[in-house]
Amino acid sequence: MSQMNRRRALQLLAALGTTGLAAGCGSGTDAADEAKPGSPIKIGLIVPGSGPNKVIGDEITNGFQLFLSLNDGQLGGHPVTVVPAEEGDTAKTGQAAVDRLLKEGVLALTGVVSSAVMSGIRDAVEQARVPLIGSNASPKSLQSVVYIWRTSYVLNEPGEALGQYLRQTLDASSRIAIFATEGQSSRDVIGGLRYGYEQGGRRLIEEPVFTKDYPNPGKGVYTGTITTALRRRPDAVFCHYAGTQAVQFIKQLYAQGYKGPIYGPGFLTEGTVLSALDDEEKGEVRALIEKYGIETALNYSADLNNTANRVFASAYRKTHNASPTTYAMASYDAAQVLDKAIRLVGDNPTPQQVNLALGKIGQIDSPRGAWQFNQPRTPQQKWYLRRAQLDGRMLANVVINELATLG
Question: Which listed residue, 39, 151, 200, 400, has the most CB atoms within 10 A of its CB?
Fold first, then answer.
């Protein structure tokens, strides 16, 4: 990895459980090893500690803490205390989290899972002039910000990447049934799909079908909606669900007799979704997935073959006994960009100095591949097409192609 000092190299070797890099790192002790740590700093971590988004919050926490563990608990040479705050799921709960963290004297904020929370705290963050490096929520409407940066993606981008792919893959007369939860996030995703697909005279024939945002959907909650849509004999299904919603929707879609490809943003099959589907009795769902296919667009996959990802994914698996997700990766990168910005500032950093430095850090050597911030303070990055298929004995998201560079 770039600009690697000896201590960093040895930590990465420990994470990987391999040998052989030390010879390339020199035998002397450089200035970074001799320098004393800078003044302690606090970083506020806004994540949900309960509810359906808790699993994403846990991944975000894991990714940020992993970067710290590989860097002596420091960012930019300063010892770090991470101060967590409960995000909740509304603008009010998000505002309470921000207020508490600002009273704690944090240098910067990170995290935020919910788009509603991100939109709700926008003005408070801008007025406080404390940088927020969001590692998940990124609604398209969040524009003209100065102190809010995001290491994930804008929500229209996975739809746009898939829309371009489907326009090239499907026949012009194809009917695509579109399903999604109610809310702005779904409208952003579907807007991106429409933008990517409707080129050269193409049109999405079917209108989107919006379902209630069930925190924990039970068996049969999507059945009526699915049955009505399947009567129109779609050639493909595009859907925007995650977690338990994704598991139940896919199961009920197959149970109603759908036999065709499924497409969606990467969080459709991210995290524990595939393992939950893989555990179905008699392996019927797995067989249908293998036969008809589930393909998703995302900015990351744990099997990407680059040095940064080999370090990150290996260390994550060693620590958590699970493959990392895009949520953990984006939070790891949030720590990485803070590390770079704080290092640029040097001793006694202020929030305003760090925010200014964030615009100067340049390219990030990330597990997803190299990326950099664009003018709207979101990543300009590659998007990958992933297919759910057997990797050994289990279903996994396997990268099969690059889709586009967006941002």
Answer: 151
